[in-house]
Design brief:
Blueprint lengths: L4 E4 L3 H12 L4 E4 L3 H11 L5 E3 L3 H6 L6 E4 L5 H13 L5 E4 L5 H13 L3 E8 L1 H7 L2 E4 L3 H14 L2 E2 L2 E2 L9 H30 L4 H11 L7 H11 L9 H4 L9 H12 L4 H13 L2 H9 L14 H34 L5 H7 L10 H10 L11 H24 L4 H14 L5 H12 L3 E3 L2 E7 L8 E3 L2
Parallel strand pairs: 1-2, 1-4, 2-3, 4-5, 5-6
Antiparallel strand pairs: 6-7, 8-9, 10-11, 11-12
Helix pairs in contact: 1-6, 1-7, 8-12, 8-13, 8-15, 9-10, 12-13, 13-19, 15-18, 15-19, 16-17
The chain binds 6-phosphogluconic acid.
Amino acid sequence: VQAQIGVYGLGVMGGNLARNLAHHGNSVAVFNRTPTRTRHLITAHGSEGTFVPAETIEDFLAALKRPRTVIIMVKAGAATDAVIKELADAMEPGDIIVDGGNSYFKDTIRREKEARAQGLHFVGMGISGGEEGALNGPSIMPGGTEDSWKVLEPILKSIAAVAEGEPCVTHIGENGAGHFVKMVHNGIEYADMQLIAESYDLLRRGMGMTPSQIADVFAQWNLGELNSYLIEITSDVLRQVDARTGLPFVDVVLDEAGMKGTGTWTVQTALDLAIPVTSISESVFARGLSGQSAQRAEARKINLPGPDFSIAQQNEGTFVEEVRKALYASKIVAYAQGFDEIAAGAQQYGWNIDLGAVARIWRGGCIIRAEFLDRISDAYASGRQTTSLLFDSSFRTVIGKAQDSWRAVISLATQGGIPIPGFTSSLAYYDGLRSPRLPTSLIQGQRDLFGAHTYRKVGVPGVFHTLWADTDRQEIQQN
Ligand code: 6PG
């Protein structure tokens, strides 16, 4: 058989993706640098569909029908570059290389250019949903040319998750657009997880509830407007008990969060684009703080002064509901910031990204899948929203109703010494955005005083500088 598509790299993600392709009637050529992996896949799963195993690059490419399309599932970075080179050297004009890893979008822009110079198509493709998603239906974010999308579309639609009858895949835009959107997906994922962790902390240390009681709270929240994959799995994790000690899993796990870099890229990119993604950056920094083990140990040892991490005299049921509302409001801010970054990236890099379509393909398969994405896609699709999601009538109403709780939770947490940087920064962003005047006029004055950096004035055209050192402090118009 001539296979329709090839998968290069049969780690867990690659192997699962190859099986998913085969399950949906696609014939799949499979290749791995160490052939034992390929043999293992065929032994364990060969009967699930049509696989064509290959042990050399020549056999692998010879097994593919034209244009030969290969999805690379190897580690982002140098390994990906090496595999692209290996394939590109052996491929012919018109062939398509798809990078399904978590690559940095600027690498994708560069690789696409290089491949194009060789007459090849290069598609940077974000895939979300972890191992389970790769096997049973991920959310897929391909970039690259329209021509390669035409080839990939039926194949990707066959394996993507389905949300409300629609496959969770769309052509995001040219070159690095797919990886850019996947990167921001991960940034939002970090924020979502941080906000959930803060909610847990408020109930655990603040209210003294047990992990299993809090698991029940999350299960309850999952039935309402917060319904989402991350809320659902939070319940599971909180119910988990350590087999060795019988203690809650969350009490025996080291509280230093790992990260592989996509959240950091989201924030670095946002800084370059001058887009304030404060809810996302706080969540990256919160992981960073958790990993500062030496400083944290010393802080404990010298007993840095502060309140005892509890919230006093609150009715538990009332407080749980207030936290739920604060979580939802903060989450809306985090998503609004993430979508702002996508819009700014599209502008900067010349991509035509349909934000409503992005929200639609995130409704299923991916880690941040949530009922709430329906409301985001509505806001964009209806054309109601072009600036910030926060201005959309549906979210305005939600935040309007939630904000008293949001503010109350933040006050109580602050008084009790429980750090909730995600909640706090989200509210600060919201209040900053709605402030008629900001104290940044003062900053402009300071800048002009010490460095003659100039300023503009309300309702007066032109750029000004004050001669601060002179006694009469004359104001000069500069242009
Ligand atoms: C996904 C995830 C995935 C990522 C994990 C881990 O969409 O399936 O985003 O791509 O590997 O989220 O990321 P960190 O190790 O950085 O937390």
